[in-house]
Design brief:
- The protein has 434 residues and is mainly α.
- It folds into 2 domains: 290 residues, no CATH class; 143 residues, no CATH class.
- The chain is 65% helix and 6% strand.
- The chain has 19 helices and 6 strands.
- The strands form 3 sheets. A two-stranded antiparallel sheet has the order 1-2. A two-stranded antiparallel sheet has the order 3-4.
- The chain is globular and about 60 Å long.
- The two termini are 30 Å apart.
- The structure holds NADPH dihydro-nicotinamide-adenine-dinucleotide phosphate.
- Its EC number is 1.3.1.21.
- This is 7-dehydrocholesterol reductase.
Length: 434
């Protein structure tokens, strides 16, 4: 539990009570998203009210796992594994872990993404497959993937106890925390990094494929695609494309370099992403809404500008480190903090902290564009129900907490150098506000 004590002021609450609640409540909530859209007219508050007033009636419409869904998920997982293993791609050597290990990845995400979209789009367009079936049977799929993901989380825990991957693997002794947070940083299986496979090739890829299927579902059922759905889908697919273009950057992000691979990341990518992240599209699949041309163009512009800002911000920081500061940021030499830190093996290393450009505005300025993006693809859902905005609310909580966690981690890692950076850049996420 030393990690929990280091990171959180209330280790019992943040290290046991909240994780236990999340372990118990999050899986049924993911299935409730599709139940809301299919049985409660998209009204999440009505579905939650039924949970308290008449649980039996809610249970009656709750989907069950099925062998059909196991087959679909197995086929999907096998196809993504084959793409990851077989497509050519540059080897990427990531930064050192806290214990001095250095994982490697294959960069072939863009090709895999293009193939995925081409297959789903052409199969749907030609009528070879009916992607709308995914919407109809999504409850079964979510119920099934939840069971598989929870089993995987337990297997990962047992694996760490019996055959830890390397010196970054560790069991804390608090079972709830170990299941929730995970025990291994970079587990591998069948020659692939499980984090790359699950986070990128299953979670992120499924997000894209699912919103495309939901668009087909709307078009099939309502005789065409509403411009609201078209705009929302376009922004999400552009964002996920950006993710794969920037995949190497993701391998230096907190999910990969710091968070262990347990319920939070593994189950989160397998179940939370394909349910809560896709919720605006799930909601719109059965509730088409056409926006005025000005509204559609404005939302699209907000989405495209936010993707560009997010990509540029992440790119600035990456470029500065890759060139050892010998580059320009917004046309000027970068302002840098030359930080030093020590890894678990006692060796000292240097790192650059960028304090100009986007990173001179706020220490987590990339989160602001991320929030604007989420808002952009949710707005076409309109304002009748809160359902399309669940992701925006969740993301706000997640990113505020994450910014706080990251500040604490960086302070522990860089000490006075981080204090120096914070003095130069006092805002956390929103320049001049927060
Ligand atoms: P970041 O990619 O922002 O990574 C934070 C790390 O970057 C720090 O721990 C530190 O790591 C390094 N760093 C911090 N400040 C600086 C600086 N000034 N100069 C150089 N390096 C710095 O965080 P995330 O992993 O949270 O985000 C990655 C991406 O994923 C972002 O684009 C974010 O918006 C997105 N995201 C999306 C989420 C979603 O669910 N949609 C959730 C979370 C993130 P070190 O120095 O140790 O290398």
């Amino acid at each position: 539990m030393s990690h929990v004590r280091r990171v959180y002021a209330h280790p019992l609450l943040r290290g046991t009570i909240i994780p236990a609640l999340l372990l118990l409540c999050s899986p049924p909530f993911t299935v409730l998203t599709i139940v809301t859209c299919q049985a409660f007219g998209g009204d999440l508050l009505a579905a939650l009210a039924a949970l308290f007033k008449s649980p039996a009636s809610l249970w009656a419409v709750f989907p069950s796992p099925s062998w059909w869904a196991v087959g679909v998920l197995g086929g999907y997982a096998a196809a993504q594994y084959a793409l990851l293993k077989l497509l050519p791609g540059r080897k990427f050597v990531a930064q050192l872990t806290a214990m001095g290990n250095r994982p490697t990845y294959v960069l072939n995400g863009v090709a895999a993404y293009v193939i995925n979209l081409a297959v789903v789009f052409s199969a749907g367009y030609t009528g070879l497959l009916q992607p709308g079936v995914v919407y109809d049977r999504y409850g079964e799929i979510l119920a099934t993937v939840n069971i598989i993901a929870c089993i995987l989380v337990v297997v990962l825990y047992v694996k760490c106890r019996m055959a830890p991957q390397n010196t970054d693997s560790a069991v804390t002794g608090n079972l709830v925390w170990d299941l929730y947070w995970g025990t291994e940083l970079h587990p591998e299986f069948a020659g692939v990094s499980l984090k790359q496979y699950v986070n990128c090739r299953l979670g992120m890829m499924a997000w894209a494929d699912v919103v495309l299927c939901f668009s087909f579902a709307q078009a099939e059922r309502h005789g065409g695609l509403s411009n609201g759905m078209a705009v929302s889908t376009a922004i999400q697919l552009l964002y996920i494309y950006k993710f794969f273009v920037w995949e190497a950057g993701y391998f230096n992000s907190i999910d990969i370099t710091h968070d262990k691979f347990g319920f939070l990341i593994c189950w989160g990518c397998l179940c939370w992403v394909p349910s809560v992240y896709t919720l605006p599209s799930m909601y719109m699949a059965s509730r088409p809404m056409d926006l005025s041309v000005v509204a559609a163009a404005s939302v699209l512009a907000l989405g495209v500008a936010s993707v560009a800002a997010n990509y540029d911000a992440d790119g600035q920081r990456q470029r500065v480190r890759a060139t050892n500061g010998k580059t320009t940021v917004w046309g000027k030499p970068p302002v840098l903090v030359h930080a030093k830190y020590t890894t678990g093996d006692g060796k000292q290393h240097n790192n650059l902290l960028l304090a100009s450009g986007w990173w001179g505005r706020a220490r987590h300025v990339n989160y602001l564009s991320e929030l604007m993006l989420a808002l952009a693809w949710s707005l076409p859902g309109g304002f009748e129900h809160v359902t399309p905005y669940v992701y925006v609310v969740f993301l706000t909580v997640l990113l505020v907490d994450r910014a706080e966690r990251d500040d604490l981690r960086c302070r522990a890692k860089y000490g006075a150098y981080w204090t120096d950076y914070c003095a130069r850049v006092p805002y956390s996420i929103v320049p001049y506000v927060y």
